[in-house]
Amino acid sequence: MTDSVTDAAASGSSPSKRMPTWVVVAIAVVFGLFYAYAVWNALGFLIAQASGPLGLNGYGWFVLLLAVVFPLAAFGIAFALSWRRTAWQFALVLFTGLCLVAVFWLNVVAYAAVYGASLLG
Fold this sequence. Notes:
Layout: H1 3-11, H2 21-50, H3 58-82, H4 87-114
Helix pairs in contact: 2-3, 2-4, 3-4
């Protein structure tokens, strides 16, 4: 027996099979489109607010730029945590990250709706 099979048997798990690269790419592209939509939506909101008659103050720039960067970071972290797992686990982690992005975006929109004056210059 090889060492990897012996180590896997000793740890109580079966040797893991890696997903084919095309499966990783296909799942990542499908979810990546949703993450990209979140980035595009946040960037559009940032541009609309910044080009308004009052512009944005420093806090407004921080909050709305964070809304642009957060989906990119969430996708990167979800991808890094799960790309070596099975296909359904990979998709589930990417979906969980997408849910976090959606909650964060709703918080930004709700804050802008209620306390919008604090974001504007």
